[in-house]
Amino acid sequence: MHDTASAAGPRAAATTTRTATQTPPHTASKSEQAYAAVKARIVDGTYSPGYRLVLAKIAEDLGVSVVPVREAIRRLEAEGLVKFERNVGATVAGIDPTEYLYTMQTLSIVEGAATALSAPLIGPADVARARAVNAEMRDCLEHFDPVRFTALNQDFHSVLFEHCPNPHILDLVHRGWNRLASLRSSTFRFVPGRAHDSVAEHEALLRLIESGAGADEIEKAARLHRSATLDAYLAQSNAGSLSAH
Amino acid sequence: MHDTASAAGPRAAATTTRTATQTPPHTASKSEQAYAAVKARIVDGTYSPGYRLVLAKIAEDLGVSVVPVREAIRRLEAEGLVKFERNVGATVAGIDPTEYLYTMQTLSIVEGAATALSAPLIGPADVARARAVNAEMRDCLEHFDPVRFTALNQDFHSVLFEHCPNPHILDLVHRGWNRLASLRSSTFRFVPGRAHDSVAEHEALLRLIESGAGADEIEKAARLHRSATLDAYLAQSNAGSLSAH
DNA sequence: GAGTACGAAATCGTATACGAAAACTATCGC
DNA sequence: GCGATAGTTTTCGTATACGATTTCGTACTC
Fold this sequence. Notes:
The structure is a homodimer. By secondary structure, the first copy, chain A, is mainly alpha-helical. Chain A is about 65% helix and about 5% strand. Chain A folds into two domains: about 30-90, Orthogonal Bundle (Arc Repressor Mutant, subunit A), CATH 1.10.10; about 95-240, GntR ligand-binding domain-like (Four Helix Bundle (Hemerythrin (Met), subunit A), Up-down Bundle). Chain A contains ten helices and three strands, in the order ααβααββαααααα. A three-stranded antiparallel β-sheet of chain A has the order 1-3-2. The interface of A and B includes residues 51, 57, 166 and 169 of A. Chain B binds a DNA duplex through α3.
């Protein structure tokens, strides 16, 4: 729903048990602050892939010491947004096409599962909302607004998987999206032809969900939807030199 | 030199060559050391769920300062092996049955995918090895050796998914197994009936792979294999502790 | 006797400091 | 002119120190 907010906040659901009222104090530690700040800059493209993340420099920018910054960077490394090299430093990760492939493949699997698990919990109101978003995406195609299209695309899929009852899977989906966000902002271009197909597939997905289709069927469709995006990228990527397999 | 515009570093942008995933040229940092040590103690059960991980204490035990220990703990938290509470401390995670369910469900998905992706790369030698392991597991059933059975079970599945060409997925599988290891060592008991079925399913899986079955079919079988284990746990859990709060 | 207030102890969070490793630059030898 | 080498600089890795927060124990009041 909320662009950066949702992207930056898949945290809470991680390992929280049901322990009721605990730690109401979200005073925001320096470490959290640094984590959120750096992550936001990576996802929104301020720090693009290859950007060198110097601890001392970031610490100064944020007005904290290097210790919390280091912690934040290591956390981002664990999420795959940052590449860390011993005694050398951290850089924003993501230019490698191989990594893109890995990420997309992984996302197709976990997102497919998340969507299938969500499906039974998706109500008419959700479908209506998704449909509205998809309509806006169609407009973006006509007016050629790739940036907005991309943002709406995330909103659309959020509706599909946000009800996933398994927080672990949901977290994996969020991580995948975050990685893609950092990648997309630089290397990987918008492919109009694919975008057009994508909108049509969205509608098909919604119909499938409305029809109360089985989990297997929904999972398969969601997977294929993403695989198709990957294939489009590969085709474009190979178009110049190599022959498409 | 002026590093203010270090965005496009000279050789930094060259990305990774093929340095795999480890740091062979170095000597093992304190942080890595602490991470490995604590993780090992959690997985092998020395630190069982609920155990309080006091930074200063662990630091002293390992002969390092608290900083690397803290980093190690946070990493373990990200992997779900440790629960961390602000200004309070860290404890070994894992007793919650709900978390067990989440973990198993997630693992069924990623492990199924990893197995399916591995299948085409599994050769006769691998199958033979897996079969030998499975035979040993059968022996363990007769002599009732749950500990060894569990270890062999991991060996068996390792053969199935270790060839997975997508390192991200493989990593997720490993994380799942680690979580289970920490859980299994305490709360979750060995279920003989289920173990017997499990061995039979292993053989069926091997036959499926030998037959060159499609990825979908293998994935489904691998998923069901794990789901069955989960179901067995749930059945036992419901039977044993009726209305256990 | 139960509940509350206060204080001591334990533990975490973060700042600062310094040694170590790597990268960069300049110099030397051929 | 080019490659190897030593010195300098940058940046990380970790130890230590101290303030902040929570927890636990004790005494006090009703």
